[in-house]
Amino acid sequence: MATFKRRSSASAAVSKSAIAQASTMLQALPQKPKDNWSLREAVSLLHDSIISAIDRGYSHEEVAAMLGEKGVDITAPSLKRYLASVKREKDADKPKASRGGRRSKTGA
User: Fold this and answer.
1) What's the rounded Cα separation, in Å, for the pair 73 and 106?
2) Element of type H or E holding 22
3) DSSP letter string over 38-97?
4) Where is the composition biased (Basic and acidic residues) (predicted)?
5) Could you give the count of Cα atoms lying within 13 Å of 65 in the half-sphere of its Cβ?
6) Tens of pLDDT along 50-103?
């Protein structure tokens, strides 16, 4: 039976120069390209195109089927839910127009 030496993380010493070099190396890393997105992210990226198709008379079911043909496998209920979520996020980012407040009625 093989025995393994356990190393306590508290006992490992790291030099200041090693930390500085590691920090420099990590900060110099380029942005890693993203190859896969979640369905929610995909719907967010395709939001305007999806809404445009719906505005032209296509149903959520038809849009979901067309997306599935292109590799975006989503059901119509999920598509509706994600579209609503994206709309809420976009609406939350917009500044709210202030309504004028109540005016006090002053009698003569």
Assistant:
1) 62
2) helix 16-27
3) -HHHHHHHHHHHHHHHHHTT--HHHHHHHHHHTT----HHHHHHHHHHHHHHHHHHSPPP
4) 86-96
5) 5
6) 999 999 999 999 999 999 999 999 999 999 999 999 999 888 877 766 666 566
